[in-house]
Amino acid sequence: MTKRKSEPVEKGFFEKIKETIEEFWDGTKDTAEDLKDKAEDKIEDIKESVTATKKATAKKATATKNTVVKKADTAKQTAEKKAKATTAKAEKEAKEIKEKAAGKAKAITTKAKAETSTAKKAATAVKTNAAAKSKAVTEKAKTTAATVKKEAATKTAKAATTVKKKAEAAKKS
């Protein structure tokens, strides 16, 4: 059993851009299809009216049909160009953002390394100072202890000598 919360995963920046591009593409595709359907409907309407009129009108309908088809093709091409331009722009922006993020990450990493190096140097200096102070205190304690031992030995020897003399004096008297 895991203790992790089951929360929905938030979409990343590039996924959002991708969805936006897909929405633009779908929108332009739908527009092109609508234009094509309208053009086809118009062509069918024109065909029905042409059969009811004379041959001269039939020639005009054919010209109109060609114009409508050209306009539909032009509209479709325009929509495709806009979609491509939008996609290219979004990809360019995504690339720029990615480059900026990489630059910032490098700067942060460099700064962190410098701070870490400074902290390590400071820690080493503190350790060195502590070791030196510890050594100095130890040496001072040793010399003080040796001095105290010598003084105690001297005093003990003097006291022993004094006690011996008093003991001999006491025996003699």
Structural description of this entry:
The protein is mostly helical and 173 residues long. It has one domain. The chain contains two helices and no strands. The model has no long low-confidence stretch (mean pLDDT 83).
Core attributes:
173 residues, mainly alpha
Query: How large a portion of the residues is in β-strands, by DSSP E?
Result: under 5%
Query: What is the end-to-end distance?
Result: 98 Å
Number of strands: 0
Structural class: mainly alpha
User: Which residues sit in consecutive blocks of at least 5 with pLDDT less than 50?
Assistant: none
Overall shape: it is rod-shaped
Keywords: Coiled coil
Coiled coil: 29-100
Region (Disordered): 153-173
How do the helices and strands line up, and which of them pair or pack?
Elements: H1 13-52, H2 55-172
Helix pairs in contact: 1-2
Region (Disordered): 153-173
Keywords: Coiled coil
Coiled coil: 29-100
How would you summarize what this structure contains?
The chain has helices at 13-52, 55-172. With 173 residues, the chain is an all-alpha fold. Helix 1 runs antiparallel to helix 2 (55-172).
